[in-house]
Amino acid sequence: MNDNQNPGGTGGLNPEDFEAFMRQFLSGDNPIDPEQLAEAAGLPKDPAAMAAMLDQIKQVMSSLQAQGGTFTSGESGVNWELATSQAKALAHSGSLTISGEARKQISDAVAIGTLWLNEATTIPELIGEPKLLSRELWVADAMPLFQALSEPVANRMSEALSENLTQNAPEEIQEILGNASGVMKSAGGALFAMQLGQALGKLSHEVLTGGDIGLPLFKDQRAAFVAQNLEAFVNVLEIERDQAYIYLVIREMAHVRLFKHSKWLRDAVVSQISKYASEISIDNSRITEIAEDFDPEHPDELRAALQSGAFIADRTEDQAAALNSIETLLALIEGWVDVVTEEATRRMPRAAAVAEAVRRRRATGGPAELTFGALVGLELRPRKLREAASMWREIGTAVGIEKRDDLWNHPDVLPSATDIENPTALISKLREDGKHPDAFDQALRDLLDK
Q1: Nearest-5° angle of CA 367, CA 326, CA 130?
Q2: Helices (H), 240-350
Q3: What would the pLDDT profile of 226-257 be if each residue is shown by its tens digit?
Q4: Residue 212: how many CB atoms within 10 A of its CB?
Q5: Which residue has the higher pLDDT, 427 or 278?
Q6: How far apart are CA 391 and CA 270, in angstroms?
Q7: Residues 192, 184: contact at Cβ < 8 Å?
Q8: 300: how many CB neighbours lie within 10 A of its CB?
Q9: How far, in Å, CA of 69 to CA of 36, rounded?
Q10: How many CB atoms lie within 10 A of CB 2?
């Protein structure tokens, strides 16, 4: 992590400091300085926050040592409660109550946006009020999905770090540790948890809506807005506030409509990413190589390695293909949302200006989003987004929005990566099906009945 991403911290795990930390921690001879852990884990040097996290780590370590320092079969090496508490603590920093102005702007925009979306898509409108979230509530709602997506990599990383630190620790450290391999694994997992918690805590300061990062956070599909962040973003735009709110609210409602209608879609996204993550492996040789040459006074190489995901082994051909499928699906989702939002806001004078601000924000991604991507070995922003949007736009123009939106009724009729690159054949097929609507409808019904 760079200094902007991690103010007050070094940004990476320091193996030598960690060895000293573990010796002092397990011997119980002296109290632990919370800044030691901040320095080792690359976290902000907030004594109160670090002391609270240290207490939680002690509880985990004590519990494991009481059980002989081992893990039961299938137990995770990552302390997710620690990740959640770290994320919530950072989310709480600077948190404000939802202002009456923000509530009114969002409510008014929902009323207008519902009517305009009904003209831009045939996917049914939402039932129920939107959720207005604080940053902490966003963390609570988002953590289950992020845990599911990052757990495979987290467990492998904690195992690799514990193995490396145990093997390379001085003899006296090894004597102190004895057979407590589970304790070391827990320590590695705690460090990963704190890094993940920090990334999500900072992400809670950046996200505007439930669908802002492109992932389906909620099983119960409802429009959701992190009101404080949304208000702050609107305030910095040199655009009429009501128009900015309307555009951003419509975009969120389009995203939720899609997932609400296509009930298979959330499981498809989560299962593809989970399968990809489960096949990621850690390159122990890279950990050893960097650890051997590590200079505590110059931690840039280690910091860069952690931030870039350098410890994750090179992708196999199967993983590259899986990643391409994930990017295609995310691009189809985001591209459709962009086009529907564009059509729904066509009567709004400053829609293009708001859309451009959203594109710029999305293109760069926030620092916390980049950190999370490095931790799980996956970029959250699809590369084919512009091409996918262009495809959906062409399909809508050629055959109408009803046939365009029908492509979300079943995964077998969803456009492919080839269709994104060249939609001509797909459009021709849709036009031909339009000449024989009964045959098309029967084929679709057959798919849905499977």
Answers
A1: 65
A2: 241-261, 265-278, 284-292, 300-308, 317-344
A3: 999 999 999 999 899 999 999 999 999 999 99
A4: 26
A5: 427
A6: 24
A7: no
A8: 12
A9: 23
A10: 12
- Tell me how far apart the 2 most distant CA atoms of the chain are, in Å: 82
How far, in Å, CA of 78 to CA of 158, rounded?
Answer: 7
β-strand partners of 295: 298
Residues 6+ away with beta carbon under 8 Å from 144: none
Please name the amino acid found at residue 382.
P
Question: Which residue's structure tokens are 């669908």?
Answer: 211
Of the listed ranges 46-60, 124-138, 321-335, 373-387, the least confidently predicted one is 46-60
Q: Are 223 and 128 in contact (CB under 8 A)?
A: no
Number of DSSP helices (H) and strands (E) in the chain, helices first: 21, 2
What six digits make up the tokens of 146?
A: 């992020």
Q: Tokens for 26? A: 């397990």
Element at 226 (helix H, strand E)? strand 224-226
Residues with Cβ within 8 Å of 167's Cβ and at least 6 positions away in sequence, in order, are: none
CA distance 391 to 348: 23
Which residue in this structure is represented by tokens 């492509």?
A: 407
Rounded to 5 degrees, what are φ and ψ at 6?
-140, 70
CA 295 to each of CA 16, 17, 90, 116, 173: distance values in angstroms, whole numbers, following the listed order: 9, 11, 30, 59, 20
DSSP state, residue 30: S
In 3D, which of 433, 439, 354, 338 has the Cα closest to residue 389?
Answer: 338
CA–CA separation, 323 and 266 (whole Å) = 17
pLDDT tens digits for 127-154?
A: 888 999 999 999 999 998 888 888 877 7
Sequence-separated (6 or more) residues with CB below 8 Å from residue 160: 188, 282, 284, 287, 311
- Asked if 91 and 138 count as a contact pair (C-beta separation under 8 A), the reply is yes
User: And the tokens for 84?
Assistant: 């959640």
pTM of the model: 0.76
Is 318 within 8 Å of 272 (Cβ atoms)? no
Residue 75: phi and psi, rounded to 5, are: -75, 140
Q: End-to-end distance of the chain based on CA atoms, in angstroms?
A: 48
Which of the 8 DSSP states describes residue 224? Answer: E
Q: Which residue has the tokens 């036009």?
A: 431
What φ, ψ does residue 226 adopt, rounded to 5°?
A: -85, 90
